[in-house]
Amino acid sequence: GEGAAEGLLDSVPTSFPALMQAQKVSRKAAAAGFEWDTVDDVWAKVDEEVAELKAAYAAAPKSANGKVDAAADPAAVAAVELEMGDVLFSLVNVARKMGVQAEEALRATCGKFRARWAFMEGAAAGQGRRVEDLSMEEMEELWQQAKRREAR
């Protein structure tokens, strides 16, 4: 007999970067009518998902550095990870609703971060130091200098 009909989301390659995949999946679902009315409605969903993430994290055992302790409770790590995914997915929906590509937005931010970090490394090297050897206050000052350089 005939194979099962292709589902609406089956045409979105799982090989795509996760943000791009999320945007395409949510766009297809929205086109089928599974959509919020306004951007504010999506923000409310983001707030709900952030609250669920915070609750999952609060319930999970943590090591001294605040990281979820996978050895103590693998299920808790999985729960926190799923909630983080829900937060990211809901933010992708905000981007989509605003007409912004989440993948490109994050790529641009990564580029900006890299440029600022490179400036910090250069400034530290000019003092005969490494960024890792600077205090947090010194790092913050160089970060602000890098931002001011961009504004020019």
The sequence of SSEs as H and E is HHHHH
Structural class: mainly alpha
Mind telling me the C-alpha Rg? 21 Å
Percentage of residues in DSSP E strands: under 5%
Tell me, rounded to a whole number, the average pLDDT.
Answer: 95
How far is the first residue's CA from the last residue's CA?
Answer: 66 Å
Count of helical stretches? 5
**How many β strands by DSSP?**
0
Main sheet attributes: strand count, strand direction, barrel closure: none
- Give the fraction of residues assigned to helices: 55-70%
Low-confidence segments: none
Overall 3D form: extended
Description:
The structure is a single chain. Helix content is 66%, strand content 0%. The protein is mostly helical and 152 residues long. Helix 1 (18-31) packs across helix 3 and helix 4 crosses helix 5. It starts with 17 loop residues before the first helix and ends with a helix.
Task: Give the gist of this structure.
The chain has 152 residues and is mostly helical.
Describe the protein's topology.
Blueprint (H helix, E strand, L loop, with lengths): L17 H14 L7 H21 L14 H25 L3 H25 L9 H16 L1
Helix pairs in contact: 1-3, 2-3, 4-5
